[in-house]
Amino acid sequence: MKERHEKGVANRSAPSFALGAVRCPVKRKPGRWAGYRMWRLVGPVLALILCDCGRSKPAALQQKESVPPESIQRESLPVTHVEMHNVLLHEDPVITLRVRWLRGRLIPARKGVIASFDDTRSFMIEIDEGSIATSASDLTTLLDQRVFAYAGSPLSNVQVSMQDTQIKLNGTLHKGISMPIEMLGDVVLSPQGSIRVHAAKLRALHVPVKRIMGTFGITVADLIDPRGAKGISVEGNDVSLDLEQMLPPPQQRGHLTDVHVNGSDLVLTFGSPRQDVKTAGQWRNYMSFEGGKLQFGKLTMRDADLVMIDTSNDAWFDFYLDRYQEQLVAGYSKITSKAGLRIFMPDFNKLTKAPAGP
């Protein structure tokens, strides 16, 4: 079974640990040279183990007692099981997902390929249970800089905001002439498990569309060109969003069971994670990877046993996959008794930038 992670794990490699050891005074009786010679062999080893016990622990690690016990038996697993708790997952430089809780599997994208943190296209994440949110600001970036950022797009300058339980979309529509438009939509879950925005109100030039339909013939379908837009489609007055296609790699997929607006966020629920979200509140922020093959940097883990743990005591573990090595270098690691790896990492947004050269 997976070990609980203790607070206050010492940050030392073997050499620094040895240098920090204190020699314990030894009393020896005359004529007992055999015992003295034995003590000279084993004494330093015991000193390394015993003389460090009273040292103070890093303050950042004295906040919560543990991260969760392993739910998987430590035996060889063919796939990599993944868990995330309170993770700000940077998809790219401008898009961030707020992963309150996620349990699923990390699957190689192609046969014979090892999932690698250094290649986000080498794997996908299949979500069994999860609660994930994206902000109106991130949706704005996603739509304006990715979904509608193609040549000939009929919509530009996209801005998304939340209004009570609805999504409001503003932008510039190019149809004959360029005109500002505004759409207010209800967010619902389609029978197929996708996100659907039903256009409750559509306005152009701040005039109801019905009054200018005869002149410009504007409909919801005019906002989207299916030949260029990726992950978004229109059926009648409904706009369907497929985040699996819209988001940058790694690809994420799962069965949505709920979608709703909460404040300035769009919250997605996969499976039934409510109890897990409640239970996870006692744990430190972390990501764990169990089983299968996993590669990062020059290290390849077989039957992976890796946990990345937030060293701070704030609400979120800020993690940037494309720049994970910077966080890894700024943290430290511990090898468990079963050859697992525990990496204690600072938040990405708290990394100290190296000083500029002369």
Form type: elongated
In the predicted model, the low-confidence regions spanning at least 5 consecutive residues are 1-30, 32-63, 71-76, 211-215, 354-358
Helix content: 10-25%
Tell how many strands the DSSP assignment holds. Answer: 21
Domain count, please report it.
Answer: 3
- Our measurement of the CA-to-CA distance between the termini, rounded to an integer number of angstroms, reads 52 Å
Secondary-structure-based class equals: alpha+beta
Question: Which range does the strand content fall in?
Answer: 35-45%
Question: The biggest beta sheet, please?
Answer: 11 strands, mixed
The helix count comes to 7
Order of helices and strands: HHEEEEHEEEEEHEEHEEEHEEEEEHEE
- Indicate the radius of gyration in whole angstroms: 27 Å
Mean pLDDT: 78
Structural description of this entry:
The chain is an alpha+beta fold and 358 residues long. It folds into 3 domains: 14-50, no CATH class; 72-134 and 266-349, no CATH class; 137-244, no CATH class. It has helices at 14-19, 33-50, 136-147, 213-216, 243-246, 274-279, 324-330, and strands spanning 80-90, 96-108, 115-116, 123-135, 155-163, 166-175, 177-189, 195-204, 207-208, 232-235, 238-241, 251-254, 256-262, 265-270, 286-290, 293-296, 299-302, 305-310, 317-320, 332-335, 341-345. The strands form 3 sheets. Strands 1, 2, 4, 12, 13, 14, 15, 18, 19, 20 and 21 form an 11-stranded mixed β-sheet that branches. Strands 5, 6, 7, 8, 9, 10 and 11 form a 7-stranded antiparallel β-sheet that branches. The longest helix is centred in the N-terminal third of the chain and has 18 residues, at 33-50. The two termini are 52 Å apart. The model is unreliable at 1-30, 32-63, 71-76, 211-215 and 354-358 (pLDDT under 50).
